[in-house]
Write a sequence for this structure.
């Protein structure tokens, strides 16, 4: 009886506790939870932000994540998330949810009936469903180029604008592995965002910020714009999941300690859960400012059964508010930011960026800056291709011809995801990204061929049915180009049309593979121009034979014998035509120079047909010096390849190198070779130095007659693995420059940031990994300087780089890791297979080196950087030369003749939209104070850009073109300790509708919607 009495007494206690919190409960009957409360002044307000982090590909492909297939890898279905969330939001008008990835949402939206679409519109208009970020994906911030970031964001923002007439207000970059300065000011403030929210910052930085309550800051990512482009930045005190004990996913191990408020349940726990909630909230309140904190109520692919989350949050809001010690509410990042802004608080100032990111002493997430270099290079190549394709789509075929560039834009948007271009997805997902890109490229190629046929036709029927003769060569880098290799029929010529997507004229040396050396090259005016033939090297032949069979299924045939090089000059936003013909008579030789290998006679050999010279040691085959006879810049220099062994992890380092993390097994890398076989090939257009560093590293250094830089083409792979050691391969340039631990790297191809070895501006750094902890992302380039010289390096795709010792720059170009080492994705051991053979992945790419007098290198970096990003686009066909000349326009610009953009301005978007309007973006290329001549106001004349067209309407918009410029409203923030006025940045005045002249100040990007 005593036992029964004890049980009865315990039940009475539970009931009495329950009555405190809910007088409505009678024998477990229905309760209407009160979730209607808003912000309460004078109390701690806990903002519950419901979210699901839905990767656009990672462990599964984007399709598999959407439909929920392949669940043996991960139980995730975004379609279920959206179905379930919408249903739950309709149950209670106070519930709220935020969603990011429009690559998923637009797919789901297209499948809904009219009733569901109307319900969703009502949810959006009521503020229950809020789009944050709003791009196609949550893009990476280390490996993405700023133009790609803009494009993918615009793709999503335009969708939201068209269907909901809404503009996102908050950035939600919760999972990228570090955060860039460009993200803060360009992909934040210039979009019209008031705030950006994220989880991943360095573990040392986070702990320091918790102590001084500086997790939330005013972030000024741009030195040029300062406070005019600042943004409120919220770094979470922990991951983007809820506090421990408050995850309520119904599937897997997600449901933690639900609120059991039926007093008939033995595990009735309302009082305990309220106390848990208050304790967790107070802990977080102690590390932030004001009486507002945010709880991120969600995680990866959560809310597949949304009611399990919302029902528990309903209860928490109801009972916490009934308790009265604090206030809980459904919220969004926008509501939270408005509350923070209204609190009249002073905030710490943040400049620069949040790179590199480490989550423990030996885990620097700097490996992904280079991981999967072939995918990174493919994305970058297609990014420039997409820019040119959209120009030609507007100029030549229009949006309504049955072919478009959308497929490539969609694939590139998906590829910017922080597990795509980062190289941190599983191999089958990586293959899926590449497949989507290839399909998009094929469709864009059809657009380009059609457009070029239209605009070069002299018939004047711009949008008429084009004569689809032109072809392109996507594998030109490995010498596979049937259009140039196959024999030229009698009485015909190989027609080469070169299109220039830049806004200024350019002269380049192009190279095409050919099988003979008896050609005559003529320009569009009939002048015979000089060519140079260089015999095909074995490295290229081997790549061609293996990769054409692996990727195209084409069995190796007799490859081309030569590279044919000749110089082309192309007007801005225009084209020029060249004709290559076989000599008519036997024994007659062409007008080309056949290069031969030189036999050096001295200990040192000097190469370079122009101002720039390089000298090499004949004995060691190594670079010794780089100098420019025109500028007087002269820098002793060595260049070599080395590799870091990949750590497998040990007692002191719980994780080793993987797709994300770089952990070398020692701070000193291994030399690939100390003595290198050297071949020098000279010619009137280019000198080449061929170096075989090892059986798996081949390099060609090219110095062009009219260029102020050296182009270094490398072929790396297959990286050997028979010793059981993973290898992380670097190119290192060593100079005698006194750089005092300083070097500079770009931020997403835009601003350059100062980096100091073993130093962070925001905290006292302890470095357990002296190599990995000093690596930074490089998207455009890096440079070092001393008191008299600058040494600059530009890259053709995203890489990781460092200056581990003064005077050095190293670039990580390839990684092959043989063990998983604690990473969640596959071992980074990429292989390529044919029918009978598999081998490690080989990559071919280029970087570019220049030396300049102190203070003059910016012109080369900015101009050449644009040329690398937007190479000439080449198209080929075979036709009788005279017939082609009579039926085609051979050389022209789409702009007014003799007009070009200033050298400090780039045209980064020219695109016809679905509604017939045209999206135009112009970007100033220089920071304030970067260059004496070009860091100044620039002017662009739209009437001359669109020669022959009448602009009937023009609207200036924000960066993503989802609101007019005048509609943008910015919250004002008070910065801690700031007293005086800062100088105002130079920005262009509003456009004059009469003159249509656009002004751009340093680093300014201006976006317009035009109607013709």
């Amino acid at each position: 009886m005593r036992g029964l009495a004890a049980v009865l007494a315990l039940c009475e206690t539970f009931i009495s506790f329950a009555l405190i919190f809910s007088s409505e409960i009678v024998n477990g009957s229905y309760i209407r939870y009160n979730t209607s409360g808003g912000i309460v002044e004078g109390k701690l307000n806990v903002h519950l932000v419901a979210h699901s982090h839905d990767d656009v590909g990672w462990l599964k492909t984007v399709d598999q994540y959407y439909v929920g297939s392949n669940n043996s890898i991960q139980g995730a279905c975004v379609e279920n998330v959206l179905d379930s969330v919408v249903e739950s939001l309709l149950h209670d008008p106070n519930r709220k949810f935020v969603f990011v990835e429009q690559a998923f949402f637009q797919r789901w939206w297209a499948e809904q009936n009219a009733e569901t679409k109307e319900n969703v519109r009502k949810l959006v208009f009521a503020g229950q469903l809020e789009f944050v970020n709003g791009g196609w994906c949550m893009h990476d911030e280390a490996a993405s180029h700023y133009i790609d970031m803009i494009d993918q964001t615009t793709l999503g923002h335009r969708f939201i604008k068209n269907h909901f007439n809404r503009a996102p207000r908050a950035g939600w970059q919760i999972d990228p592995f570090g955060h860039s300065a460009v993200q803060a000011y360009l992909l934040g403030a210039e979009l019209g965002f008031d705030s950006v929210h994220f989880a991943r910052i360095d573990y040392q930085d986070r702990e320091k910020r918790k102590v001084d309550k500086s997790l939330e800051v005013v972030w000024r990512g741009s030195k040029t714009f300062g406070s005019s482009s600042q943004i409120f930045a919220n770094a979470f005190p922990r991951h983007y999941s809820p506090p421990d004990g408050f995850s309520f996913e119904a599937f897997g191990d997600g449901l933690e300690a639900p609120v059991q408020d039926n007093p008939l349940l033995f595990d009735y726990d309302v009082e305990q859960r309220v106390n848990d909630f208050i304790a967790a909230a107070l802990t977080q309140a102690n590390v932030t400012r004001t009486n507002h904190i945010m709880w991120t109520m969600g995680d990866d692919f959560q809310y597949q059964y949304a009611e399990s989350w919302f029902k528990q949050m309903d209860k928490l809001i109801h009972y916490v508010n009934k308790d009265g010690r604090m206030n809980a509410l459904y919220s969004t990042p926008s509501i939270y930011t408005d509350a923070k802004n209204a609190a009249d608080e002073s905030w710490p100032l943040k400049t620069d960026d949040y790179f590199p990111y480490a989550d423990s002493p030996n885990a620097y997430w700097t490996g992904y800056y280079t991981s999967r270099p072939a995918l990174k290079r493919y994305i970058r190549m297609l990014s420039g291709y997409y820019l040119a394709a959209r120009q030609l789509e507007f100029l030549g075929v229009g949006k309504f011809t049955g072919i478009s560039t959308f497929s490539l834009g969609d694939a590139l948007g998906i590829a910017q995801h922080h597990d795509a271009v980062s190289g941190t997805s599983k191999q089958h997902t990586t293959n899926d990204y590449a497949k989507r890109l290839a399909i998009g490229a094929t469709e864009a190629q059809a657009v380009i061929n059609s457009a070029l046929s239209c605009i070069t036709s002299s018939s004047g029927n711009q949008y008429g049915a084009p004569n689809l003769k032109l072809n392109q060569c996507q594998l030109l880098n490995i010498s596979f180009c049937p259009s140039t290799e196959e024999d030229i029929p009698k009485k015909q010529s190989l027609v080469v049309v070169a299109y220039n997507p830049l806004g200024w004229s350019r002269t380049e040396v192009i190279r095409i593979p050919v099988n003979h050396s008896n050609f005559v090259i003529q320009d569009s005016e009939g002048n015979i121009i000089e060519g140079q033939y260089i015999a095909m090297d074995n490295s290229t032949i081997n790549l061609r034979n293996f990769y054409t069979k692996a990727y195209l299924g084409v069995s190796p045939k007799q490859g081309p014998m030569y590279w044919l090089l000749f110089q082309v000059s192309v007007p801005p936003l225009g084209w020029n035509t060249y004709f290559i013909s076989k000599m008519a008579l036997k024994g007659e030789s062409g007008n080309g120079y056949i290069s031969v290998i030189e036999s050096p006679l001295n200990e040192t050999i000097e190469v370079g047909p122009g101002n720039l010279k390089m000298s090499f040691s004949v004995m060691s085959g190594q670079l010794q010096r780089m100098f420019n006879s025109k500028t007087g810049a002269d820098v002793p220099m060595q260049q070599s390849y080395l590799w870091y062994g990949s750590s497998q992890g040990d007692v002191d380092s719980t994780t080793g190198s993987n797709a994300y993390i770089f952990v070398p097994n020692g701070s000193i890398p291994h030399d690939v070779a100390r003595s290198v076989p050297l071949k020098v090939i000279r010619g009137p257009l280019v000198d080449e130095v061929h170096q075989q560093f090892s059986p798996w590293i081949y390099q060609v250094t090219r110095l062009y007659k009219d260029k102020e830089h050296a182009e270094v083409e490398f072929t790396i792979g297959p990286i050997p693995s028979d010793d059981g050691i993973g290898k992380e391969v670097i190119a290192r340039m060593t100079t005698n420059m006194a750089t005092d631990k300083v070097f500079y790297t770009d931020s997403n191809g835009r601003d350059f940031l100062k980096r100091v070895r073993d130093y962070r501006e925001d905290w006292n750094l302890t470095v357990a990994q002296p190599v990995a902890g000093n690596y930074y992302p490089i998207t455009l380039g890096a440079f070092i300087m001393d008191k008299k010289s600058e040494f600059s390096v530009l890259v053709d795709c995203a890489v990781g780089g460092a200056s581990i010792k003064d005077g050095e720059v190293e670039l990580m170009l390839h990684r092959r890791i043989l063990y998983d080492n604690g990473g969640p994705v596959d071992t980074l051991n990429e292989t390529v297979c044919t029918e009978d053979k598999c081998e490690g992945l080989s990559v071919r790419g280029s970087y570019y080196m220049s030396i300049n007098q102190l203070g003059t290198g910016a012109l080369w970096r900015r101009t050449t950087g644009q040329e690398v990003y937007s190479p000439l686009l080449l198209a080929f066909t075979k036709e009788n030369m005279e017939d082609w000349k009579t039926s085609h326009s051979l050389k022209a610009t789409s702009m007014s003749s003799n007009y070009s953009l200033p050298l400090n301005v780039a045209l980064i978007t020219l695109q016809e939209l679905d509604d017939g309007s045209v999206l135009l973006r112009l970007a100033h290329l220089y920071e304030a104070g970067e260059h004496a001549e070009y860091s100044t106001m620039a002017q662009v004349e739209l009437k001359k850009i669109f020669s022959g067209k009448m602009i009937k309407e023009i609207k200036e918009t924000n960066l993503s073109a989802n609101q007019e410029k005048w509609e943008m409203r910015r919250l004002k923030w008070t910065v801690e300790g700031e007293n005086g006025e800062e100088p105002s940045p130079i920005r262009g005045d509003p456009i004059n509708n009469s003159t249509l002249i656009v002004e751009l100040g340093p680093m300014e990007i201006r976006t317009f919607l035009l109607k013709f």
Notes: The mean pLDDT is 93.
